[in-house]
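Dear colleague,

As promised, here are the two records you asked about, laid out in our usual form so they can be pasted straight into your sheet.

NAME FIELD: protein one
SEQUENCE, THEN STRUCTURE:
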Amino acid sequence: MTLMENATFPNAESCTNVGADPVLMGQARSSLGRATDLLVSMQEPSGFWCGELEGDSILQSEYILLKFIVELENDPRLPKIANFLRRQQRLSDGAWIQYPGGKPDLSATVKAYFALKLMGDSMDAPHMKKARELILKLGGAECCNTYSKFYLAALGQMHYDSVPVIPPEVVLLPKWFYFHLDKVSAWSRTMIMPLAVVSSYRPVRQLPAPRGIMELYANHDYPHRPFCEFDKQLLSWRNLFLAIDKGLKLWERTNLKPLRRAALQRIEEWILKRSDGQHSDGLGAIFPPMVYIIIALRCLGYPMGDERVKEAERQLDRLMIEEGDCIRIQPCFSPIWDTGIAAYALSEANFNQENESLRQAIQWLIGKECRDFGDWKANVRNPVEPSGWYFEFNNSYYPDVDDTAMVTMALLRSGCPEGKPSAARGIEWILAMQNEDGGWAAFDRTINRPILEYIPFADHNAIQDPSCPDITGRTLECLGHFGFRPDHPAVQNALRFLEFEQEPEGCWFGRWGVNYIYGTWQVVCGLRTVGLDMSLPWVQKAGAWLKNIQKEDGSFGESADSYEDPAVKGQGPSTASQTSWGVMALMAIYGPNDPGVQRGVRYLLDTQLESGSWDEPWFTGTGFPRVFYLRYHLYRLYFPIMCLGRYLQLNR
């Protein structure tokens, strides 16, 4: 029997409708109609959706710093970018923050202060004074993270020996070596490669003293001499790696680098190949490496007029959104993610292949299937045909499991026959990407190597891409729609992983969405779709946690604070997207007419705007936990559609 012959098609799920509230169902149908009308109206003519993807202030500040590093500070757009950067400052304490309601972020505040000072803001201006006082209170600019220190060193505000070294020779390490580029996360790979060039060349743009930020250092000697603070505990992994880093810096001062030229040449070939405009929207198609590659290419001798440098600039500039006197910058585009979720949500709302909007979306997604081998191939042992979907418009070297699972579900649930071959290939690719621990990661088949987290340049908290519960749960949901059940070996391994990863309270961590509500929703919906007995004690424990955190008005909400403090799991301002996740999770465990489900549905109905959407100012997406968060502007629309559609389908 083929995968497609064994597949579960739309409306195949069943659930008792005893206790259904006809009034609530009627209101839900009306609400769902308004929401789907709005979503369809937002679809691009070629069939995709791409909502704004909002990050924090570092996008604006790092772009300004980049322009000064490469001596292009006369860019006429910079004043508008600076205007938006000023608006992002929190006036109460002078901080720039990672997400609304978050604590002050030292690195973000230092970079914003520096960028605005370069743009002409006086250090005596009230907003600058307040930021400076906060920075010094938090320990000073010397306490910034590694990736911020690269900017400070490149602009002469810090000695490069205070920045962790990334020797280009890492690209030549053998596969068996514990640290190998195939063993780090895909996004770290795209950052490490250009930064290794910067680390080798150590470019410095000297600024006049009045434009510098010496006033931001608590230790005034720090900018002028190398400094590295070891742990008080002598024997630690961090101290070992810091000692190695110190040794590498001593080595950098010598002429004993016979492999340097070969390493730089290989890196140059690597980054040029992966930033080819035909295959990628810039290196990695995400903001940080798209910035770093411009500096790296300049180090390698490429003039700003070179077509490859200009292409890197164009790809970066496409991320800008101009409104009035402000320009804000997105970290990347999210069309395949948005389109996959939107199409899946519409299928839950009873749209099918006869609907033109859904059919256009499916056709567009089919055309975006990866049919070439990417970096993922390095760690896949079993032969598998290239497939998968990425996140952005073009990023063929980096398809990911999460997008692939969502798209293949959308292809199947739409009922469009032309999507069956792509969906079948996608499933085979997903199966080949399963890790040995039974879970799935985002971009690669990997093994967790926790020691790597102690590498000095790994303080972005994401040097690895290990298996995570949320992607594993979504993958099970995908496999369940294709007829996979608990007796399948891949499902059995995933179930063991999820049971092991369950938190003591009964929830699951959310790596790619905020946070335990997201992870728990993904997992329990996956468990139900593969046909697991939802009365099992560990599943019921998840249900009890969901009921415990649901608010009286039926809503759910969780702040990204829970990444810092697990004591606030499942707590935070109510949002439409998180309420939808929580309600769908309750439905998966208890059915559509559980009182908690009904209260959650009522909350969505009561808070819907006249436009058909919902108001959601909070960040519910995650980039790097504890480092970078996201606000997907379509989350507030297509997740409530998915929730309401599922509620009505289960009550049919």
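NAME FIELD: protein two
SEQUENCE, THEN STRUCTURE:
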Amino acid sequence: MKIFGFGKRSGGDWRAFLDAAPVGLFEAGADGRFTYANARFADMLGRPAAEIVGGLRLADILDAPPGNGGPGAVFAEPDRVSGETRLRRLSGPPVLVSIDLTRERDVLRGVVRDAGREREMAAALQRGERTFRRFFDNAPVGIALIDSHGRLTETNASFRRLAGVEREDAIGRSLGEFVAAEDRNNLVDRIRTLAANSAGRDAPGNDTQGRIVLRLATRAGKEIDVAIFARPLDDTAGPDGAIIVHLLDMTEQKRLETQFAQSQKMQAVGQLAGGVAHDFNNLLTAMIGFCDLLLLRHQPGDSSFADIMQIRQNANRAANLVRQLLAFSRQQTLQPKVLDVTEVLTELSHLLRRLIGAAIELKVVHARDPWLLRVDQGQLEQVIINLAVNARDAMGKGGVLTIRTSNAARTAPERHGDEEIPAGDYVRIDVEDTGTGIPADILGRIFEPFFSTKAVGSGTGLGLSTVYGIVRQTGGFVLVASTVGKGSTFSLLLPRFVGPAPGEADGAAQTRRRDLTGAGTVLLVEDEDAVRLFGARALRNKGYKVVEAKTGDAALDIVRDMGTEIDLMITDVVMPQMDGTTLIREARKLFPEMKIVCISGYAEEQFRQNLEGFENVHFLPKPFSLDQLAAKAKEAMRPPG
């Protein structure tokens, strides 16, 4: 007798072999009585194999035979029947199984598998496939499977989004078709290297995972910077195996890199502007100062008076240029005063009409009872002029330029782009044009230095960056709204000034300060010879005794020697070796009540931060005139109260 092809004399291991099978095995005779059952089949029935063999028939354990017909159908044609049925167990509910029955003469052999478990495994496999498909399609990076020739065999949704194609348009095409022409050879070389090395990817020196950065050419004609990672799909891929490719969109990273590089450039240019402005301020201080000394000897009727005034006026114009440089680097010294924006715009409107030309209509709409501002009037005028010139250039064939003021109270913080505007009261100035507008893709770059959409030679690219620097240093904000073909609106939000309006008391104070003569000993510390020489002569002309020092170290020695004989120390802030702030600290350690005036072309806030806790320290911005120097000295010497 043979059981599943094993003869009786085939050895003693066949029963152990069949019992270890993961499926149920049985044989039955022509009458359906079992002649053999392995251990797995006995477990399914919950009965001992000895009870099954010779004691049970196939019909006793089947709810219904597989296929159509009654119990005898298993012996009918055809010789092979497959299907699902339920086995009656000794205890417990019937179990769903899948049976393959084979008839050979009068012997029926069967293979039984647990259909419920198979269904669970199939369902788990389907769930796994669905889960994988979701991960695959919803991955934030593009994924593609290509053959060794670079043809796409599978793609995910992110890849298709980057390439701008549907799945059916991608499968079968070469990956190189989606890459910019100049980067295509680089990609092809990488795929060839991977295909050649895929069979021995663990061998030393084999580069089986590479990262290359190139541009993806989309169907819409745009190019996207992507990083491509490629590697063989598995170790056994061989020269004809598949390669998996991951594409990472580098657009945002490139944008951040560009912004970082731009910020470094802005910082470098700002430092350069600050350094240049410092040297120019020293030159201009000397020029303006010596002009003032000459004007003391040359009255308006003198033939040299007009020439001296021309020199002085041009020096003041140069000082305005220096302030623009410092405004760009946000380091300029502001001279704020309380202003009514209506009065400023009324005075400025005459200049604006000449600037914009006859083809453009200027409308100025004033707010009713506008709040006061405390700003540097020259810098505010410079902001309005820059915006008006920009608007003029955007309206080449004419249009309307509207400047509108209003009071803006914000009860809660508001976010605009990368900036958050705190709650508070602001004076709003809108500069609106009917020009060409600004495209959305460059709107975020308009405040960058040297960025300009104008033709070469038509602009410096510093106008709007200067506007931004001035407004932000004033504590305000710049908002932009633009529609291509309709125009742009630049909105300035400047903090409201809360305090007494300028009145007669201020005028009386100005009158009192017209007498600029004084008395006392002044220590003048300045490393620039021309500035020191002018300052010393100017102060001596006003009645002061002046002691000069070229360096901070020399000045400190004089302080130690003269002590309380010094009524006032006027010192530059930026000097070699010992700077002005260090000199002030050391001098105040020796004489805490010493009166001090700092002179500098840099912003007052910069050195104030380094002198926290020190009182009665005055500041005079460069360049200054003779009268401004004398007035500041008298102000500092005046007793408190």
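A couple of things worth noting about protein two: The mean pLDDT is 79. The first helix runs from residue 14 to 19.

Best,
R.
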